[in-house]
Design a protein that fits this description.
single chain; 613 residues; 24 helices; 2 domains; TIM Barrel; alpha/beta
Length: 613
Amino acid sequence: MNEAKSETPLFNEFTPVNAETWEERIRKDLRDGAYNSLLWQTDEGITVKPFYSRQDLPANLASKPDDFPFVRTTKARDNHWDNVQTIYVRRESQPSIDKAAAALERGATGIHFILKEPVDFDFGYLFSKSVMHGAFISFTFPVAPETYLKQYLDCARQNNYDLALLRGFIHFEPIDDEPFHLPPYSCLPEMLDLVKDAPNLYPIAISGQQCSNYGCLLTQEIALVLSAAVSVIEYCEKHDIAPEKVISRMQFHLTAGTNYFFEIAKLRALRLLWSAIVSSYGLHGEVASRLRIHVSTSRWFHTVFDPHVNLLRGTTEAMSAVLGGCDSLSIAPFDKLYKTPDDFSERISRNISVILKEEAYLDKAIDPAAGSYYVESLTKEMAEKAWEYFQVLEGKGGFKKALESEFISCEIKKITEQKFKALTNREQILVGTNKYPNASEKVDFDPERLMQSKYYDTNRAAYPFEIMRLASEMHFQKKKKKARALIAVIGTKLHEHMHASFAKEFFDCANFDTHVLHFENTEDAAEALQNNDSKVMVLSGSDEQYLHFNQELTTRIRNNSHKPVLIMAATPQHMEDEMMEKGFDQYIFQGCDINSIVNCVQKKVLLEDEPLD
């Protein structure tokens, strides 16, 4: 089809409609004021409109894949990606290598070995497995990455293995398990020299997952990996290593979250900005095209409870990464958070990639989002926001100084606090965790052991809700019944009890046996509740009723033999000190500090009053 024909309307009888006309009609149908309610303001500061048109397309769109600046990926033939299974190595390496070989025989095309401790890795045994030859094999080392890399390459030579056939990356993650760390600057020159005969082995892996898994913004993730990459280039320049040599052996490791279209745009924006950075060093487009992007599914959104929902999350996250043009992809097993994944969960995670290739044919179409008014506009806005943040980091002296001054950690902490608040308010939903809990779910793991495990990830969106649920499960396993929570609604103006509804849903999600009782006045409530066996009592009243929440009321309730935690369903405002003096332990309301309630209930009810020993 030629250009003239492509612009010919399919139906001549319809008059073309521009964006202004559409917006005018929407405002008319929604009576003007409601139009603004359709605008979605994201955490990144991007305003998402209810519709997009040709007018929203950025100028100078890349016409083809593999065209500079590579927004449409660097792929020219197909949308191939490696299906990489992550395998943790904690003691002996041979069982992990056997497991990797089995995975490669069952659908994986790559393996990422993560050494959690400085163990002796048996590279000879690795090369004895024929299925490993030509596979995408990568490593994360906790110490001395240059030493491990030398052993790997020496062993390859001893086995007469062509180094040009080695594919993969080398990543460094310190054993101290700090969330944010510096690249291994001092060993970079040696590592670059070691891989001079292994053109498809990337010794410099810049990771954004350490920040993303803590809940940072997508634009922050882009800016942080770019800033870290620039710091590596500058360090190597000072040691007489040309930028081209460094850039051509560098890989980015990012995560994919559940914000579907944003995650697609994130990878496109990253390539756009990376091309700009490469150009700033006076290098041509072929150097920028060497960039590899490895993506793993985000831990931030995964949950312990109702874990099969993680399969849905993992699938949409994987699709975003693939449609965004990742080069390799690791999908976490759905049960990874609370136990060592078994063969079934690992097979399911591998098969997500297999299905996306063999049944959805996503490996056949390169950048299918190209030309989308929404995605193209989103790519541009995300690139602009990420570049602004990149400039902020550079203004702080670059990645190293921003990290050492704790600027980065403080910035991410502010964002995660906002996200936790949004989850508490139900503005953001984690299905099965802060909304729609699975009441019939049977827990098949030891909640106390999980809470005490050093491998239990406490830096996820679901953690504040999970810790309450885990404590509740501990109570259930000991007493063979759920902890009881009572919501006492006092007064007849039911429309004033939205905080009581919030409290009920909160304790339902924590797997309490939750009941709601209605009383006309405080006297009736005190009479009924003074002998109630609930471990948590929430009192909700109208503004007039709160005036009658006096010392006598709380004393009668707290003096029963079960000594319940007493919570007021209201915003504290100016009443906080007064109500605490009257005997209330906490307030609960939409937007409250969930952590304070969790700590109070867990400590005073589930751990002190119901000891497990």
